[in-house]
Specification:
The chain is of the alpha/beta class and 410 residues long. It has 18 helices and eight strands. It has helices at residues 43-57, 75-89, 109-120, 123-126, 137-151, 169-176, 198-201, 204-209, 222-230, 245-255, 260-277, 284-304, 308-322, 331-345, 352-364, 376-379, 391-398, 405-408; strands at residues 64-69, 96-102, 154-160, 186-193, 212-217, 328-330, 368-374, 381-387. Strand 3, helix 6 and strand 4 form a beta-alpha-beta unit. It is globular, with a radius of gyration of 27 Å. It binds adenosine-5'-triphosphate. Adenosine-5'-triphosphate (ATP) is lined by residues 32, 34, 38-42, 69, 71-77, 194, 228, 260-261, 264. Residues 314-398 form the Cdc6 C-terminal domain. GO terms for molecular function: ATP binding. Involved in regulation of DNA replication.
Length: 410
């Protein structure tokens, strides 16, 4: 239990006697895996996935499944939940193993296979030791096959964010293992990705080994997000949440492709803001502040991750905005400023056309807003550029880049 979530009183006046706002903040933690009765709005997906894994429960092979959906759509949660339930529901005499691999972390074939072997191996049953490092990939495969056959009739392997895996061999070898006579245990793979083209990009051999069914997770709508949050209301003390807090957090998250993680984040953050504020209740204004904060974080990530030329273009617009009463500037003016910046930083100067494309890209990402102005038949159409965020914040973020920093030394 975290200090924040303690609801018991404390005698020492140096410390507060329990949290005013949260009673169990853990329920709103990023990595928190909710219990079955807190999973909302995914009954259909749960039933469909269960159907694919059904064979395992009766001692036959489970099917492979590819799950697609945007971030925060509950793909990992549902996969873990259903495989866990399959394991618990196994018929007498049938033994099912489950393992979850985050391919963002274990992104090479060797890491994934050694991680699988280590997670699935119960040394007390198999008498096998799986070293963390030091073996060749093929040795790790051998250990994995041995440990599977020593323990299970079938195993359900979740490969989350599979598109981040460096190569596809692991998918091919796992899907072929039984057919190739390497193991008696059958393997069902649940591969998860938010890139819909993932399968098309696989080479033909991998695709033909990984025979699978597909499952699509739609983004949550505002009502579902509301329900997901309402189901965790007990993270807060009784009566602390004002009525409009959950609906507003849901509305914000629904705007962002229905991301449940985002909804829960806003809710937790709103509670933290209310606490910092010394408020007795979490109110609408706290949610708005939490949302603004999240926006800034997202924005910082966007700017930090932008290519150097894009940063120089944004810095040009920033300089004009900071040093003038206006907030919108014609592209030609921004370009002049951009040229000065490039000269100072000894960078290549892109053509006006490329420069315009960069600004368009930034507009697409929501960093800049571009407005067309019609200057009459003689003047033609001109583009005006405006920063969406506070120019001081943008400037500060761009100057975090070591190359750009020299500009501030002007
Ligand atoms: N249906 C739901 N009911 C309750 N909580 C949910 C639900 N869906 C998602 N969540 C919450 O949102 C968080 C994000 O969900 P999850 O990790 O499953 O999303 P994902 O689709 O796998 O996203 P990503 O692609 O980013 O990994 C989960 O930890 C869970 O707390």
């Amino acid at each position: 239990m975290t200090p924040d979530s303690s609801s018991s009183s404390v005698d020492d006046p140096l410390f507060d006697s329990g949290h005013r706002i949260f009673s169990n903040k853990d329920l709103l933690k990023i990595g928190h895996v909710p219990e079955a009765d807190r999973i909302v709005g995914r009954d259909e997906e749960i039933a469909k996935l269960a159907k694919r894994l059904n064979g395992a429960v009766h001692g036959y092979s489970p099917e492979n499944v590819m799950i697609y959906g945007k971030t925060g759509a509950g793909k990992s949660l549902v996969s873990r939940h259903v495989s866990q339930r399959a394991q618990n529901a196994a018929e007498a005499g049938v033994s099912i193993g489950t393992a979850y691999i985050d391919c963002a972390e274990d992104n090479t074939e060797t890491q994934a296979v050694s991680s699988l072997a280590a997670k699935l191996n119960d040394e007390s049953i198999t008498d096998i030791t799986v070293p963390h490092t030091g073996l060749s990939t093929s040795k790790y495969y051998k250990l994995l096959w041995k440990t599977l056959d020593a323990q299970f009739d079938s195993v359900i392997i979740i490969l989350d964010e599979i598109d981040l895996m460096n190569d596809d061999s692991v998918l091919m070898k796992l899907s072929r293992a039984e057919e190739a006579g390497k193991i008696d245990c059958s393997i069902g793979i649940i591969a998860i990705s938010n890139k819909i083209q993932y399968i098309d990009k696989l080479n033909e051999r991998v695709r033909s080994s990984f025979q699978h069914k597909e499952l699509f997770f739609k983004p949550y709508d505002a009502n579902q997000l509301r329900e997901i949050m309402a189901n965790r209301e007990d993270a807060f003390r009784d009566g602390v949440l004002s009525e409009d807090v959950i609906p507003l957090s849901a509305a914000f998250a629904a705007q962002e492709h229905g991301d449940a993680r985002k909804a829960i984040d806003i809710l937790r953050h709103a509670g933290e803001v209310a606490y910092e504020d010394g408020a007795a209740k979490v109110q609408e204004k706290h949610v708005r502040q939490a949302q603004q904060h999240a926006e800034k974080d997202r924005f910082r990530e966007l700017v930090n991750g932008a290519p150097t030329q894009a940063k120089a273009a944004l810095l040009a617009l920033t300089e004009l905005s900071v040093n003038s009463d206006d907030d919108a500037f014609l592209t030609s003016r921004v370009y002049d400023q951009y040229e000065r910046i490039c000269e100072h930083l000894e960078m290549d100067i892109l053509s006006v056309r490329r420069f315009r494309d960069i600004l368009k890209e930034q507009a697409f990402l929501g960093v800049v807003e571009i407005e067309k102005i019609n200057k009459g038949s003689a003047g033609g159409i001109h583009l005006q550029n405006r920063l969406i965020e506070d120019p001081h914040v943008v400037r500060e973020t761009i100057l975090e880049d070591s190359w750009m920093r020299d500009w501030a030394a002007e």
